[in-house]
Amino acid sequence: MKAAVVNEFNKSLEIKEVEKPTLERGEILVKIEACGVCHTDLHAAHGDWPVKPKLPLIPGHEGVGVVVEVASDVSSVKIGDRVGIPWLYSACGDCEYCLSGQETLCPNQLNGGYSVDGGYAEYCKAPADYVARIPKEADPVEIAPILCAGVTTYKALKISGAKPGEWVAIYGIGGLGHIALQYAKAMGLNVVAVDISDDKSNLALELGADIAINGLKEDPVEAIKEKVGGVHAAVSVAVSKKAFEQAYQSVRRGGTLVVVGLPNDELPIPIFDTVLNAVTVKGSIVGTRKDMQEAIDFAVRGKVRAMIETTELDNINEVFKRMEEGKINGRVVLKI
Ligand SMILES: NC(=O)c1ccc[n+]([C@@H]2O[C@H](COP(=O)([O-])OP(=O)(O)OC[C@H]3O[C@@H](n4cnc5c(N)ncnc54)[C@H](O)[C@@H]3O)[C@@H](O)[C@H]2O)c1
Ligand SMILES: [Zn+2]
Ligand SMILES: [Zn+2]
């Protein structure tokens, strides 16, 4: 089968023929139709996180396709079903986190397109128990970004504590952020969108943000304090330390910063302000299978819609280059 392969960190991906995966117990084989390109895939290709991916690696954790083969012990998924293969590729099912419905914290989890091969390929195998079920009416290309960008931002907003009518700031209106702001609106929140270009500000306003700030033109912290008195919650999905610092400072007393973007960096937090203002800082990693069902449901009902640009697998290196430069509006989805 054809796949895009990371052979070495910081080198171009190689488009090549590789062995089609063979199934083990509990697994299914999916013929991939579409796979979204997440900034995490770029981190994987760069090897810039403390925990490195396997090499060689086929990236991709927003793969959607049709089941073409199932292992003999699989009954929950049938040939012909449409499924998605997410970042949470599998978990142990047995640890305290799995047992309490927090499988995204399972220490024994595997990650699609990182610790195991993912969706930048014609075929991808996955454990039947952890694939996302894609409803019949959903378009595979449109739904692909929900598999990571969607569920991740939906979950981050859920745990942000922001209630309908309150203000939330989204830092980084990229693949994740442009969907985050739509979930926020669908949840009844007011949204300030922050990025560092006019293109992203315009996109945010088109998608329903109440206020959009270009952080290169004005100081987002001052603007947010002045316009809304600080936000009840800020979600940072930017790949920039500065954005995290500003997101922290944008939060009003009693508010919450949800840390989602993954620059390999430190976030210095002032102890005094955090205590006196009772600010909460929490991390959020993708979403559970239940979060995934809910996030997909929003998309299928048309409450959120990824802005998509499609291209072919062969163009992945150009897509990565544009992503590094912050030049993608919305999400790129590879049609496979
Ligand atoms: N926690 C999780 O579960 C999770 C899940 C998926 C992705 N991620 C991470 O989230 C990050 C974003 O992923 P993506 O696919 O949306 O990336 P992306 O490249 O599509 O978007 C990043 C956006 O941040 C903007 N940005 C850069 N500097 C900024 C600044 N100073 N202020 C405001 N905005 C700024 C860019 O212009 C761009 O629009 C990555 O680090 C990715 O690995 C985390
Ligand atoms: Zn992702
Ligand atoms: Zn577990």
From TrEMBL:
It catalyses: a secondary alcohol + NAD(+) = a ketone + NADH + H(+); a primary alcohol + NAD(+) = an aldehyde + NADH + H(+). PROSITE patterns: ADH_ZINC (PS00059). Its cofactor is Zn(2+). Its EC number is 1.1.1.1. The keyword Acyltransferase does not apply. GO terms for molecular function: alcohol dehydrogenase (NAD+) activity; zinc ion binding. It holds the Pfam family ADH_N. Residues 8-334 form the Enoyl reductase (ER) domain. NCBIfam families: PRK09422.1. This is Alcohol dehydrogenase. It comes from Ureibacillus xyleni.
